UniProtKB/TrEMBL annotation:
Mg(2+) binds at residues 8, 382. Mg(2+). Can also accept Mn(2+). Pathway: Metabolic intermediate biosynthesis; acetyl-CoA biosynthesis; acetyl-CoA from acetate: step 1/2. This is Acetate kinase. It comes from Leucobacter muris.
Amino acid sequence: MSSILVINAGSSSVKYQLIDPQTEARLASGLIERIGEPEGRLVHRGGDGREEERRVRVADHTAAFAQMVEAFARAGTPVAELGIAAVGHRVVQGGSVFAAPTRIDDVVAEQILEMGALAPLHNPGQHQAIVAARALFPDVPHVAVFDTAFHQTMPQAAYSYAIDTRVAERYGIRRYGFHGTSHQVVSRRAAEFLGRPVESLRQIVLHLGNGASACAIEAGRSVDTSMGFTPLEGLVMGTRSGDLDPSVLLHLLREGSSIDDLDRLLNHESGLVGFTGTGDFRDVRTAADAGDAAAALAIEVYVHRIRRYLGAYLVELGGADAIVFTAGVGENNAAVRAEVCAGLEWFGIRIDPARNASGAGGARRISSDDSRVDVLVVPTDEEAEIARQTRGLVG
Ligand code: ADP
């Protein structure tokens, strides 16, 4: 049996899933975190559901992969017997260079590293994982699947910032968009659910997880998205601010903040955390329900921002056939879905409260039968999509 190993690495963590590309079944999965710290953690889950958790000391990404290999062996199947046919790597930033999944050779690996200038929080760790994984599995193809690739179809009007063109070109400053793998798989699955070709649909996908972004999709192609130069622009997120007047940064710099202060503020101390101290939407909702005014305001701003993008994308697309909620909050929080869609009957958007409240899993419709726009919940599965694209490239 052949399987595809999907790697999602960060600067201090490696997540992996072994996926049967035919059935998308998870044959195993795991996580190694706190790489480079005195004490790290490994969790390995076998296909039989048995889980092993242990403390490990992991110096770097190469050591992390060695730990993964040992975990597979302890779970009963040495890596050599897993039938790994290819390795798919999630890469956050592909710049304007990569518009499709790409087989990794030395040159591509180097380009991914160079793009770390645009994505310093992501690409360097992913590059280290690519180097380590290629050394460990030298005989199988490795494929990079980029978060930005799906958005390379955006028209120039949508991806350009209105700054001095010479500065923009010199520094690669434009909107790239992220979460592309999720927007792509979710929009395709929504079309399958509706039983219509994706080419015939105008969709607005709302990916609401810890990170959050909206995407306007026409005929299966991204035409606009809320994340921009980095995953910081757009919606309110767990710890990120989303949209902000850039003058706020200039003001804080003049008032004495350092660049690192601002990075921390915008990426880690803003969004839901900024309002409430917690970035987990469930906790914010619980606090709001208990009468916490800061938590209630956090949700109001969160929803207000989503609706602003929803309105923009309804105009850009000239209407919509489907609005699709996905990721942790989008799939699980009926109240947010109701709040986002409230009062939009004029646009042909009507939620059915009972359908919206149903906890059923899988893709489902939450709009009423007389809603002109189909409002759907469609679970995202980025790893399965990375496996699918990897297999599609290497055959
Ligand atoms: P990531 O972007 O890390 O993949 P997820 O898509 O898992 O994140 O989304 C995480 C968010 O989803 C958290 O804010 C979490 O509170 C929220 N979430 C997860 N499950 C539920 C639930 N049952 N109800 C409400 N929110 C949920």
